[in-house]
């Protein structure tokens, strides 16, 4: 979408316009699904991420900044949700007895490698406060406001720390 059209759609979305939401979903749904598929290497998981991204977009529509490009917002949400998805899936897998994967093994290997890189990346985030804020946001899926209240800091500080952590995380994971 062009910048002016995007702002218009986001303004309508903020007001709860379902047609604007549908238009945004139809325009960006493929982008979100492809990004999730690229990261997770699992079509079913990418479908789940697609639904989660747009569910969160609708739920948080009133807080959307119409001046921030929608692709930036969506890309960040995809990355965060994929990381959280992998961490949840790994925690669930660790609690189950050893069960052989009936697939070709490649997707499971890629998933484990991706998960290991996520853990490594989160551990390498510096300073420790930034790492803790990233963990709260990505793994525990807390909003910026919830983290700010919990840590007794300004929302802008949370936003800045997460932005720094995202850059570091993307560099370590080799994502564009």
What is the SS-derived class?
Answer: mainly alpha
- How large is the share of residues in beta strands? under 5%
Helix content: over 70%
Radius of gyration: 17 Å
- Sheet with the most strands, sense and barrel status: none
**SSE topology string:** HHHHHHHH
Mass-distribution shape: globular
Low-confidence stretches: 92-106
Write down how many β-strands occur, each being a DSSP E stretch of 2 or more residues.
Answer: 0
Mean pLDDT: 77
Give the helix tally. Answer: 8
**For the terminal residues, how far apart are their CA atoms?**
21 Å
What does this protein look like?
By secondary structure, the chain is mostly helical. Helices cover 77% and strands 0% of the residues. It is built from eight helices and no strands. The chain has helices at 3-14, 18-40, 43-59, 70-95, 106-124, 128-138, 144-151, 155-173. Helix 4 crosses helix 5. The longest helix is centred in the middle third of the chain and has 26 residues, at 70-95. It is globular.
């Amino acid at each position: 979408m062009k910048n002016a059209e995007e702002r218009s759609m986001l303004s309508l979305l903020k007001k709860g316009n379902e047609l604007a939401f549908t238009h945004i979903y139809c325009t960006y749904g493929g982008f979100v699904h492809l990004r999730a598929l690229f990261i997770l290497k699992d079509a079913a998981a990418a479908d789940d991420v697609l639904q989660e991204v747009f569910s969160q977009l609708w739920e948080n529509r009133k807080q959307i900044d119409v001046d921030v490009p929608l692709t930036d917002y969506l890309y960040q949400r995809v990355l965060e949700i994929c990381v959280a998805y992998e961490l949840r899936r790994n925690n669930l897998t660790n609690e189950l007895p050893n069960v052989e994967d009936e697939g070709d093994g490649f997707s499971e290997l890629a998933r484990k490698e991706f998960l290991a890189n996520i853990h490594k990346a989160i551990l390498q985030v510096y300073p420790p406060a930034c790492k803790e804020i990233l963990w709260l946001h990505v793994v525990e899926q807390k909003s910026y406001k919830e983290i700010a209240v919990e840590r007794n800091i300004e929302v802008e500080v949370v936003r800045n720390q997460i932005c720094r952590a995202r850059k570091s995380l993307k560099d370590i994971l080799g994502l564009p």
